[in-house]
Amino acid sequence: MEILFDDKKVKVLFDNFAIMSSTKGHELTKHVKIRYEQLRAAETFYDYYKTGLGRPHRLEHDKNNLYAIRLTGNIRLLVRPVVENEDYSVESLKKCRKVTIIGVEDYHGKKKKSRTYIP
Fold this sequence. Notes:
Blueprint: E1 2-5, H1 8-15, H2 17-24, H3 26-41, H4 45-51, E2 57-58, E3 67-72, E4 75-81, H5 90-95, E5 98-106, E6 115-118
Parallel strand pairs: 1-5
Antiparallel strand pairs: 2-3, 3-4, 4-5, 5-6
Helix pairs in contact: 1-2, 2-3
């Protein structure tokens, strides 16, 4: 699958995992790299989704049309499948050959205040 990036800062970190490791930490980088390689290896987003790796799930409310992929604990890789007409049906995801990486964050908690790790 082709990987796009929502932000130049995100692209810089994903283009060079050594930079990500030195600025964001080795453990987080290790988990991010694993999920990144798994996404790249999948032919479509649906193929990745059905593997269950990282328990991908669609988000709602202010993160509508994003999917979260578990990295560690509450930390998630956020991606947006590139689909036509914002159609996130199974049939559309089966055709989806591109995703945009939005970043990495922890959006859990009672106050719904998220902590952004990347960008």
